[in-house]
Amino acid sequence: MKRQLPLLVVFLAGVFMVIQYFVPAEFSEKAYEFLIDWTIIIGIFALALGIWSLIRVSYHKIKTKQEGYFYSYVALAGLFGMILFGFTFMGGLESYMFTHFFDHIMIPIQSTMFSLLAFFIASAAYRAFRARSVLSSVLLIAAFILMARVIPMGPLSDAVTVVSNWILLVPNLAAKRAIWIGVGLGIVATALKVVLGIERSYLGRD
After folding, report:
1. Spatial distance between the Cα atoms of 186 and 198, rounded to a whole number of angstroms
2. CA dist 46 → 50, 98, 162, 173 (Å)
3. pTM over the 0.90 mark
4. Higher per-residue pLDDT: 123 or 45
5. DSSP for residue 3
6. 85: left (phi > 0), else alpha (psi -120 to 50), else beta?
7. Which of 46, 75, 109, 131 is most buried, with most CB under 10 Å away?
8. DSSP code at position 68
9. Ramachandran assignment for 67, one of left (phi > 0), alpha (psi -120 to 50 degrees), beta (any other)
10. Coil, strand or helix: which one is 155?
């Protein structure tokens, strides 16, 4: 019963969401909105579970003094600090400390992460653009044309603009649509596996 009940709930919810999509009636729309409200409630509980998991993992690292356990102190201090400054009696979301921490700590950290990511992308692009085959040569030429279109002084010529627009709107768009279709089919296949009880990893090991 410990595993059968969640499987039954998932099966009924999944089948209902499929049926209501093809039955445009008032009762089905209300039931759909009711279930959507439940997803918000479940998301809030999932957020609380994630916070508890972060506290538990950080505490375990500090207790056992694992490598880099000092960062767990920083993570917990940031977590509880932002929660404390977010309370109404501390000024709420518009308080000086809350906005100060966010603007001068959170945003610089995000900028640093994206800056580091840019170097990894440049490294990956260098390896991908080396002209070792016909396909990599085509990729290299296309990359140069697109980069020539967005250089700071503007497109080198109208021909570059025309060719780059064609690359973006024809082969690039076709590849993106193929990826979207593949992602959509993957989502449908995964959803069917979950609804039918084939995929049960969300139940855990017990």
Report:
1. 15
2. 6, 24, 49, 36
3. no
4. 45
5. T
6. alpha
7. 75
8. T
9. beta
10. coil
